[in-house]
Amino acid sequence: MIVPMSRSDITKQALIVRWYARSQKHQTKSFNIFDKIISLWVAFNSWGTFVTKQSNDRKMIDELRNNKKLLDSYAVLKREDKFRNDISGFARYGILDMRPSYEDRRTRIENQNDFGQILDAVYQVRCNLFHGQKDIMNPHDRELVELSFRILGNVLKPVIEELNNICHDSC
Questions:
Q1: Where are the alpha helices (DSSP H) in the chain?
Q2: How far is residue 35's CA from residue 41's CA, in Å, rounded to a whole number?
């Protein structure tokens, strides 16, 4: 049985698809990788809130660590050399928690097969960026943001394609 979606659900899904599409635009001087990951995070956070019904980001992330759609997407992507290289590159880093009095804490990827660890690391990069601790001029920060963007964007892509199909039929 197909449950009809409310108009607000359709509108929310259309917004998620548009934010994702914005994140996929080509980089320019005025729209760089930092802008792209912010747009991607808006799409991801909106979708995550929509499916988990969590209003707290940490609780949402904790639920999404076990989301079947994301886990299935991750399992498929791990078969691709380019994606595995991105994960390996990302795992080289211990991502500092840059909040005051947390500076000694790092988010580490101990097991590259554990999607939850990958998501936690991407989330830590996002937190550092959103709270003013990533510098667009710093090559290290740029690499972490680029890897986070590619990993999250690829994992989220099948979800967005499904939403786009639903929205195309309903919007």
A1: 7-23, 33-52, 57-64, 68-77, 81-91, 115-130, 139-170
A2: 10
